[in-house]
Queue: 2 jobs
Job 1
Amino acid sequence: MTTTAAPSPAAADIPDNTPALDVEGLCVDLSTPSGQVRAVDGVSFSVRRGRTLALLGESGCGKSMTALSVVGLLDPAAEVTGGAVRVRGSDTLRMSPAERRKLAGPVLSIVFQDALTALNPVQPVGRQIGEPFRIHRGLSRRQAHEKAIELMTRVGIPEPRQRARSYPHQFSGGMRQRLLIAMAVALDPDVLIADEPTTALDVTVQAQIMRLLRDLQDEREMALVLITHDLAVVAQRADDVVVMYAGTVVENGPVREVFAAPRHPYTRGLLDSVPEHAVRGRPLPAVPGSPPELSAVPAGCVFQDRCPLVRERCVQERPTLRASGDGRSAACHFSEELARA
Amino acid sequence: MPREEPTTADTTAGAGADTTTVGTTAADTRDTTAAGAPDTTAADTAADTGADTPAGAASSPHRANWWRMLGRDRAAAVAAVVLSLVVLVALFGRLVIGDRAQRQDLDSSLRPPSLGDGVYGLFGTDVLGRSVLARLIDAAATTLSVAVPAVLCSLLIGSALGLWAGYHGGRRESLAMRVADVILSFPSLLIAVVVLYVFSPSALNLVLILAVARIPVYLRTARAEAAELRSRLFVDAARTFGTPSRSIIYRHILPIALPTLLTVAALDFCFVMLTESSLSFLGIGIQPPDVSWGLMVAQGRQYLQTAWWITVLPGLAIVFTTVSATVLAAWVRMATDPAQRWRLTLPTKRRGASAAVPPELIP
Amino acid sequence: MIPFLRKRMISSAIPLFCVVLGVFFLARMTGNPVDLYLPLSATAEQRAEFSAAQGFDLSIPAQLWNYLVDAAHLDFGTSLRTGQPATEMVLDAFPVTLQLAGVTMLLAITGALLVGSLAAYRPNSLVDRIASLLSMTAASIPDFWFAIMGVLVFGVSLGWLPTSGTLGGPEIWVLPVATLLIRPFGVLVQVVRGSMVTALSAPYVKIARSKGATPRRVIFGHALRNAVTPVLTVAGDLAVGLVNGAVIVETIFGWPGIGKLMIDSILQRDFAVLQAAVLLTAVTIFALNILVDVCHALTDPRVRLAVPA
């Protein structure tokens, strides 16, 4: 970023087929009482501007940690041990903190799940929303305040001029999430990461927030990385999906195709457990068992303990993520078999 | 978050118990799988794996871990050893020294510490020729016999009242809190001073005053814990089964609040010991011929210029005991806090590297 | 803010009133309050005369009424030791303690903010571990012993500082303030460190960093103000506890403050003075609590804007 050859902030001169965010072979290790464990193991994905990528998986599968490592906000107990995170052609993992800070806001941005704790309780919200302009554009306090009011209007806060002087605790959950989104899109980032942005909200509010995110994405041509465990949200909102299990990617591809014909038994299990497909009178199908402890991930396939198709080979050899040429890949020895079934 | 760890062991499914933040209920209802926690931060995940491991394997490794963790933290290990030593001396010291703490020998008055005068001359003698070592041992028993009952009384009464008030809420809660406020808003030394003026200073009165003065501390802590826990799912669940409130408090709330209360008690032990020493030093605590460390400091004060050891040594005894209790309390607090415990498992050298604050925040 | 303060003032006044009542009933609990006021050697006639003069032969409610009326007029009787009005003696001694406590708290808070933040930047680093151990030790040292050691080393052995007294230059302040300082300083360092670590690992700090804020902006713009709230609460409690220390320090260094006055009146059984001193201390603590509440409201909008229940 700081070299003279660095691309200008305007994304126009970047070829359209270059992904806005390209994560390759990301590994994150975690210090735990039982020693170092690998929480994220060789995760790769990329997303272009204007597209939405969903990171789908159960709690603890490493999707949030992947997101945090992309924006460089990992907790100190976790450490990125390998891989690359490329934005605008340079690897953020190799950057100095100062270089990274220049990207935080104008290029990469994040929205968290819990908007109450993500907003500073002792600062008026207007000041917090205007802060990116103060940091990156050097605007005066008053100019930043005006910008903040504009943004608050855009995300649908009623009476933004008065509300800008209020504090986070004076807003409802949905409004707080809107504020957080306003702050994240302030500088038109290339990539917006939304880490379970609607989990803490009521169903009706969830829909509003998702609509707002979509509108903002269309308007600003952002790449959106949506982290969720909600299959419905993925089906409705995402273009591509990356299914994660126990720190690894087990399947990826266009949402429509993956959901229509999953090539990994885990994806299949997830889809089967959606109540819509259930038959009255029969128990709801569920993936039996629970994900492995990170400290005890089996040597072979990570999903072997819960897999209905498990065979000898799965115990001995870990399947790699194989591309099948149609823009999809799956990490299963028997994905063709599954596709035929 | 910090106190949820014990619950994971109790409620096997862990669905409600180990979820983390405000988003609990929303996440629970949707997550049909057992893993309730929406994966949040690294520390949380670290804590969760830590809490879950023993449940998966067996229950005993967890206990063994504690000793190992204590062994890894050198300061805490030393503190534990010092405290055990003090307790042993207080329990059995008097049996060994007999009446030497009171035995006068005016010929050997104010002897400095030396190796030549036998065991009891090791720390010198006071103005009446009494062995300072023997008096230190005797005083250890007196000091602990005031501090320990006082702490236990206030711990029991304060916790019981606090849990009860916090669990039931409403008027009972506000009444208990008002009383606690009244007692706490006044310096405890001052309460003791006034009460000991009106009644005569004695070990029993001292215990009573110190216990009453410190009850509010436990009451507040226990109330806060119980008030927070009473709205949790597992308490609601117990209530729907018709469990009487007494058993809910005892079975579900107390085990979670206990580590915090014990930590407070350890810190409070220091406070009580210091207050007792101060009162004895001022002449309104333990009265001669009984002896406590604080009183020894006061008695030695006149001979400060000629016989430093009479004053310095009992002071050191107080400092070692209270510092050890503080260090151990800090360690227990960290060890029982799942969000922090992972730090104790790291080798000391790595701890600096993996700071709780990201390295780039360090200016 | 005004409703908030009104509510806090009422709830702080309750303890104050309880103390006033407590002193009254405590004095009567032993049976005969004359025992408290008069020396043990007093004759039966002296006792009867004193009892009548003080109104101790009246009924308890009547005595309580007189007591409350007198207290409202700040009239707590005369000292048996000096013959001066007790209130006057207490008010004379009061500024000494107030100065001592003020200087101490100022130093403790600034020092703790510095050392505590420094330790919080690198938790578990060498600086942090040293600061933790030192602050724990400081909070656990008996102050009377610390004072005596100070006298022994700097007064007696080295002869740098006076061992007691209030006459002289700034050097007379060193040992008393240092003695009074150690406990609040040690406790505050730990509190500042703890709340700073918590604040720095809070989600809003993550968000601030995701906006590209510099470390300085994160620490001073976001973390510090959030970390100050618990520090204020504890500082208030410690200031109350400073009375404990003042008793010790003033006794050892011979400062004519409230603490020494109280101990002297206990040892010489001068109940009128003790009662006046205790009640004035209670009033001071009441004022201090209000001050802490005001500071709270100023730093935390959640407190300031809360709807009073």
Note: Chain B touches chain A through 40 residues (CB under 8 Å).
Job 2
Amino acid sequence: MKKILEVTDLCKTYIINKRQNNVLKNVSFTVEEGEMVAVMGPSGSGKSTLLYTVSGMDSMTAGRVEFAGKELSKLKPNDLAGLRLDEMGFIFQQMYMLKNLTVLDNIVLPARQSKANPLSPKEKTEYGKELMRKLGIIDIADNDINEVSGGQLQRACICRSMINKPKMIFADEPTGALNRTSSEEVMQELRKINSEGTTIMLVTHDAKVAAKCTRVMFIVDGNIKGEYNLGRYEKETELRERERSLNNWLLEMGW
Amino acid sequence: MYFNILKRDLKRKKTMNVILLLFMILSVMFVSSSMNTVISVMSATDKYMDMSDAHDYFVATTGTQAGKDVEKNLDGSNAVKSYKSENIFYLSENAIEYNGKVLDNQATGILNSVDDISIKIFDENKNELTKVKDGEVYMKSSFMQNNHITEGSKIKIRSGRYTGEFTVKGIFLDVLFGSDMMGTPRFIISRNDFNKYVENNTDPAYDMVKGNILNIETDDTAAVENLVSDVNGVAFTGSRATIKLSYIMDMVIAGVFLVVSICLIIIALVLLKFTIGFTVSEEYREIGVMKAIGIKNSKIRTLYMVKYIAMAIVGAVIGFFCGIPFGNMMMAQSTRNFITGGGDNYLLNIVCSAAVVLIIAFFCWLSTNKVKKFTPVDAIRNGESGKRYKKKGILSLSKSKQKPIFFMALNDILSGFRHFAVMTVTFIVGILMITIILNTISTLQSSKLLAWFSMADCDITLEDKASTDKYTRTDGQTIRSDYLKEMETTLKENGMPAQCFAEGLFKLSVQSDSAKTVALVFHGIGSTADQYSYIEGTAPERTNEVALSYLTAEKLDVNIGDTITIKTNDENEKFIVTALYQCMNDMGEGARLSEKMEMDYSKALGYFSYQVRFTDNPSASEIQSRYDKIAELYPDYTIRTAGEYVDYSVGGIAGYMGDTKNFIIMIVMIINILVVVLMEKSFLTKERSEIALLKAIGFKNRSIITWQTLRIAILMVAAVIAAVILSEPIGQLAVGGIFKMMGSKYIIFDINIIETYIIYPLAVFAVTVLAALISALGVRGVSSSEVNNIE
């Protein structure tokens, strides 16, 4: 399998009130194309910082991050923005969307902004609708974002992250603000996307969510303490066993 | 505990609190300084007249007998409470010599002794002028400026047989003859110097250079007008209202500042209402949490009231001090020829500042009413209750072919116009201020204004300074008519076919069955009555027909078709009123006789310049080349284009208006910059999460900055369009109202479309959008990773 993300000796330090806070300490790992990787760890361990730094949303203090053959530290801010627009997709815990746009407009917006996307404006809209149809939210296309439920909105965020057919999706606690049913639905969609070939890296607190991923990285105090390979699964009945074994591993890691 | 919450709130929401404080300071500054200007300007002329001890009616007479006759009539009347009479000498139009040259552009002047003057006059420091040393002279500032006379230089003044030499001491402020519209320049000298003119002009042949000005106190000006209307030798009469009207051009400027001041107050109040409403609505999380832990609505409301009132008091104190120099600047610009006594009215500033604090408290009270609406759920849902089903977006990106950035900018404005209303109002008001003043200036410089001076349209005017003496004789009409024909022949021989004509002026007693007045009567030589503008009726073509100005018709209580009596050529003759017109001569009072009427020009008051109207419709550039040719043909004449003549007639007011225009453009630009910078700052705070999100999903800084700037640019374009549409009706309301005081029915603005609607709005647009662009650079400080950290 081809590496899509290669992280070597990544460090991230914040200086708050003249005090140095090393959030990430020489983190190294790789993600291969088609993987669905979960990052777990206690609060304040550096999970989200890791996600934002490797996706180019935040700067790194030291180390090397290579995404699809491009070294992020060598890219200018505009190139990084271009990379995020055309080759990456993002899903956040809070379902951030622009308040003045409809759900469909929010989904289509990155496509309309992208120069690399070869489709015409009309085709982009059609593709946005197709994604919404796939995720079962086509009925809310013309709704205001305040008119829909959290689960629907998060699925809309997934559509938005998919609109430019990215190589990789970064998700920061995508189910964190959702109830169990919505959470199940969202993870089902992410699995479907992953099975179609899109690489996913997500941050979660929830072992149920992580159990659906192919690999789990456990991070403590800015270091990756261990990795657990779950592999792919075919049947839903396998999930309970995956979850149990993951929980055991997490206990070993000190969760 | 509440104090702690307040303290932490001030610290944590520093940006928004600073923005709110700045708006409060601006509001106090604008309201206090503008209110001061409004009050001072509105009462300026009355106050100035009171300070000058100018009473209710004024009469100027020529010759020693006329003054005595008027005094005799006044002494025997119960209508007169008191009066003061001052001796004057008239100065002919070529009486002043400066640097060895007779000065140009003069009307008949007046010479006074400082000890004999019947009103109070003031020096340039606005202190009463009571003493003038022998050999020194004071004069009005416009006369000094127009003739480039400097303080300390020598000047010769001739009246009758005597010419005195004086050192120019400086300017003085004179309520009677100080306005720009009052062409008469007055000179103040010492009693000893004045006596030299008296001693050298005892010969009865020079009696006409002497005269009197009477300052009469009365409650019945109509009765006093009757007392003086039959006296021979009355050169000028005017009530307090007439003198006030002579400041019409100053009032135009003051009026423009009045509009500016009112606009600033409106902007200030709109800014406050918006900012307070905006900041309170941003407090949803805190309010929700406080409610969740059981704090009562009234307590929460008090907390915010205390915060905003404390800020308002700080803002009022700072705004009060900032408002003083700003107000003084406005006053200095708006009342050049007045003494207002209002510019340093600090008490008014304090009252205004306190009023703004009360207004802020009221707005806070209204805005904090929302506290009742916020629920603990708001704290959890970031202010979105989920109960709003009203569509927010109006446009659809999916259905639009616009670039997403432009779409977002336009959609933001249409979806949440409330948030942009302050800027829109500010921009519209600013552009309106500029268009109104530009239209006023171009109107004041337009040849169309000739009609307001009871003159027919023409291309060129020629002023012959010696003409008054030359043609003021019984057969003056024939001599002048012959001269005009000769001029037409000369011009035709030089390839300039033209009609040449001139206006003769008379001051005649005019009466109806119910009233009587002394009016300025016009008589065209070389022109026909139908060349003049009338608002109603038809031109007075027969010898027994007359056209009246609205003011005169109103005074005489007559209308078209009525008959009036005019004392022409020493005989009372009946005339039928055939038309009504508007004019600015003699403060709106006047009458026009048919050119067929034969007049005794020994009784004429004077003439206007010769007017030349080319009959072959030459182009503007051809007129300019003919202007130069005529200047060569008539080297002793002062040649002016029609526009220059109008500007000269209104005392060069357009030049002063130019300064006012620059001042207003500067104010508009500063206000736009301040409002845009502060509003953009508040948008960056409010939209931080959206900016972070856009960055996170791959929008470049440049695109986000363009989005933010485009919104301001779109608003500015909309504001320009709205201001262009509104400029005519608002202009009529603002400046037209002042012109209407002159008796004019309406004002037709002469609009320079390129300058008014393109160049200046473009300049304001460029400055405003640049300010928006610079402010929007703050976008660069928002990190895409903040997307998850924002409340």
Note: Chain A has eight helices and ten strands.
